[in-house]
Amino acid sequence: MKFTSLGFASLTAAIVIAVSQAWGQPAPAVDALLTNPKIVKSLEDIKADDARTFEEQKRITEIPAPPYKEKVRAEYYQKRMQELGFKDAAIDSEGNVIALRKGSGGGRPKLVVSAHLDTVFPEGTDVTVKEKDGATIAPGIGDDSRGLAAMLSLIKIMNANEISTVGDIMFVGTVGEEELGNLRGVKALFRDHRDIDGFISIDGLGITRVVNQATGSHRYEFIFKGPGGHSFQEFGLPSAIHAMGRAIAKISELQPPSDPKTTFTVGTVVGGTSVNAIAAEARMAVDMRSNSEEELLKLEARLLDLVKEAVADENARWKSDKLSVEARMIGDRPAGIVSMDSPIVVATQRAVAAVTRAPRVTFAGSSTDSNIAMSLGIPAVTIGGGGEGGNWHSRNEWYKPTDAYYGPQNALLTILMLTGLDGVSKPALAVRPAAK
Ligand SMILES: [Zn+2]
Predict the structure, then answer these.
(1) Are residues 236 and 148 in the same domain?
(2) Considering the domain boundaries, does residue 436 fall inside one?
(3) How far does the centroid of ligand 1 lie from the alpha carbon of residue 278, in Å?
(4) Beta-ladder partners of 135
């Protein structure tokens, strides 16, 4: 994941609770959890498991998981889930690893807790974990090996302490979160399971940054094609490169809104065969992003029109009809936002405050597995797995397990507020009406 913008600081808990109670759902309550002996012990156990969790994180990192090639890591993750008590942990048709932890409420509400299996790194990347200047360095060590390891620690301690929830929890190791995967794992998950009431992705470090906005993106490759010909003998034919240049000139004048943040760029261009040839082909890749689905679609419609205009202009210039363009969508991530008074957002604030004893949470927009849930109107957040790090998506990605156990502790409290703790608290997560 990558944070793309920073949002606003937390509202006060008092206002937030009043709003969520008005919805007829019990407000996420953390106090009853913090005084429950089983939960107190579980939080201590998570801390005691810290070093083992870090070892697991390194082990996972050393199993390569390039886009579309997550299988070996998925099989390892499935095996670990089985060892921790989920004998039925399975890999679905898309490649996601899924374990269902049943609650006492007959299956609802159902909360997904996930971390992503894939990395951005291509096959053959050296994923050996190294130590340097007090940090642990390896591609993917934080993104998202931390989330995967934090989730295993959480599962282990919940099962060992026989924590019984009201709602069901679906633990999922997802495939296809990073760019090329286009969120194919979660897309399949929501296609196959229509009864999901809430979604949490553990992705990113620390715990005080929470993603409640999905930055959507649409990406296109445009392929301009013309007759091509000699630059001197056949002068007078339309050029694929000239047409693309016209398109880029038009696109660069677009003025999308700054709030909700909406952006575009022509990221790559390629084309032509020789300096003395009228180009027969040219290609460009365009990235468009927005925190608002509506603005994203508006920008996309305008940009597609501009490209067509550019082709028409180039044809008109040479009185031709020989130049054409093909638009190919190569990326599609929907945008969305979860409101500040949604119980899932309130629960994250209360959990962070309880774990760190400092109540400030920074909310952010990002492109993560939560995009799909958010775009479907399903309450969702992306929370951190604990620890600190940097150089995301680079071979020099580093990680330090500073207060790393905060990650699974925070996840545990957030989850229990949402699913309810059997005999202690009711689920704050509402059961959604049956999906069609
Ligand atoms: Zn990630």
Answers:
(1) no
(2) no
(3) 43
(4) 132
